[in-house]
Amino acid sequence: MAVLWSLKKKLKKNEDGYKLPTAHSKLSPKGRKSSLFSRSSHRKLGPWVLLLAVGALFWYMSSKAFDGGKEVIKKVAPPTKVDVLEDEAYYDFDFEDIDPQIVEKFDEGVQHYLITQFGDDVLTPEDGEIFEKEQQMLLASTVEKYDLSVFSGSSQGAENGEHVLLCVPLRDAEKVLPLMFKHLMNLTYPHELIDLAFLVSDCSEGDRTLDALISYSRQLQNGTLSQVFAEMDQATAEQVNKGNEKLYLKYMSPDYLKTVEQAFSPPFHENYDKPFRSVQVFQKDFGQMIGQGFSDRHAVKVQGIRRKFMGRARNWLTANALKPYHSWVYWRDADVELCPGSVIEDLMSKGYDVVVPNVWRPLPEFLSGEQPYDLNSWMESTEALQLAQNLDEDDVIVEGYAEYPTYRVHLAYIRDPTQDPNNIVDLDGVGGVSILAKAELFRRGIQFPAFTFENHAETEAFGKMARKMGYRVGGLPHYTLWHIYEPSDDDLREIANKERENRRG
Ligand SMILES: Nc1nc2c(ncn2[C@@H]2O[C@H](COP(=O)(O)OP(=O)(O)OP(=O)(O)O)[C@@H](O)[C@H]2O)c(=O)[nH]1
Ligand SMILES: *[C@@H]1O[C@H](CO)[C@@H](O)[C@H](O)[C@H]1NC(C)=O
Ligand SMILES: *[C@@H]1O[C@H](CO)[C@@H](O)[C@H](O)[C@H]1NC(C)=O
Ligand SMILES: [Mg+2]
């Protein structure tokens, strides 16, 4: 790990001009002194500085009345307090880019019209014509027109040049970012048709998801990210040889591990390094309190709350990143280990409005080697509908817990790896690991409920809502993505036991 760290640090240092977006912010005053107002580092200083500044201003004004002249300014400039006010950059900041000559240039040719309530009447026909023409010019330069029926999405999106918005929610995800980016590069859907939108929320203190994300994104768009990973992986490999390998890997199926190794090894498809159409990174907290550790986030009681926070985050991301020219929205979790590079085309080709693949995960061999993972993709059952009738309006049913016997058909459980991966079944609820949906759904108001909708929240409620609004929602039972395996506390104990036994025996 030490090598990896130093390598990462080196990479960062070498990045010429790399700055976090906050440093570029037009709204934040420049310079060291500006931090007096920043909330994180000097929370209590801000009001004091303001108070002192106001005091200083009074002193200045009252003394000016008597003395007059520049002398006074020096007098009221004792070390710390007026420091801030003296920083010219602070005041000039918003205006410093404005060059009066340039502004003047754009004033030329501007025409102002004052139109009365019955404007047409006061214009002569000639004036009216000019007005029409000028107004069209003005509109053309400030208003964009889209015929949304052109962006409704077809099953041959790549051939038809359809734009995809690819959304990824992230929380405490620093360590899975390389994995995620490798998967993004592995996508064969034309990169130039994909806008990436990341939302980083509610990360723990000290987590560096945002920094790392921006760093990797810059390399991605420069076409150099795969080189960076190659170097990082080499450093990791050297570490592994020194015996620092993750212990649980010893207990995983060798076949699975081999598949993974191959999946991440070259040759990659020819446009692997091609930059994406755009990358946007958003950071916004929603107050998610539930821990991101495996055991934390899987307790039944916290599911409803957790899912509603996720719903808010997803909705916020769509609202801010979706553009009229997007035909499709693809939602993808960062913690996927294996996924066909053609996943977008594959999901698109089915002629459905919402499509999800199957999601399984590998397990240690002593735990059967693999497991149906995402239970949120399902077909509704009469049992679950009855169960819902006896629940409180705000209760959220969660799958995979004894508390809620739903007897639904889960996409995860009807998988047969020998069957046609193109088979599709209709679903009611969908899981969020990998959802392809027509952008039209979001434009029509379908969302990831951050409240209880038909006793569900977030992605499952999204599926239900889409169905209710007449859209086709489907899942591919034999087309599988593999979620990463994170050992639970129990699994780790079991592995430790086995290790002890091995040492004894
Ligand atoms: N923005 C945001 N992202 C989150 C939040 N919680 C999880 N994520 C991200 O959402 C994706 C899915 O998160 P997971 O923790 O795996 O949740 P999940 O897939 O619902 O649950 P699992 O079945 O445990 O995998 C990952 O990319 C996470 O980094 C959150 O509160 N806010
Ligand atoms: C972008 O890529 C070029 C090579 O293609 C490289 O020389 C340059 O350093 C890269 N820029 C960054 C910021 O990494
Ligand atoms: C990348 O895509 C190829 C082709 O679909 C696939 O075989 C491979 O498993 C993918 N890589 C990963 C890491 O899933
Ligand atoms: Mg997950």
TrEMBL record:
TM helices/strands, residue ranges: 45-62
The cross-references to SUPFAM superfamilies, in alphabetical order and at most eight, read: Nucleotide-diphospho-sugar transferases (SSF53448)
- Its Gene Ontology molecular function terms? alpha-1,6-mannosyltransferase activity
Alphabetized, the UniProt keywords read: Membrane, Transmembrane, Transmembrane helix
Q: Name one Pfam family in it.
A: Anp1
For this protein, the record's InterPro entries field holds:
Mannan_Polymerase_Subunit, Nucleotide-diphossugar_trans
**Cellular component GO terms held in the UniProt record:** mannan polymerase complex
Q: What is one GO biological process annotated to this record?
A: cell wall mannoprotein biosynthetic process
User: Per the record's keyword annotation, is tRNA-binding included, yes or no?
Assistant: no
What the entry lists under PANTHER family is as follows: MANNAN POLYMERASE I COMPLEX VAN1 SUBUNIT, MANNAN POLYMERASE II
Q: Which family does the UniProt entry place this protein in?
A: Belongs to the ANP1/MMN9/VAN1 family.
Name by which UniProt lists this protein: ZYBA0S04-07470g1_1
Q: Which organism is it from?
A: Zygosaccharomyces bailii (strain CLIB 213 / ATCC 58445 / CBS 680 / BCRC 21525 / NBRC 1098 / NCYC 1416 / NRRL Y-2227)
Q: Show the taxonomic lineage.
A: Eukaryota, Fungi, Dikarya, Ascomycota, Saccharomycotina
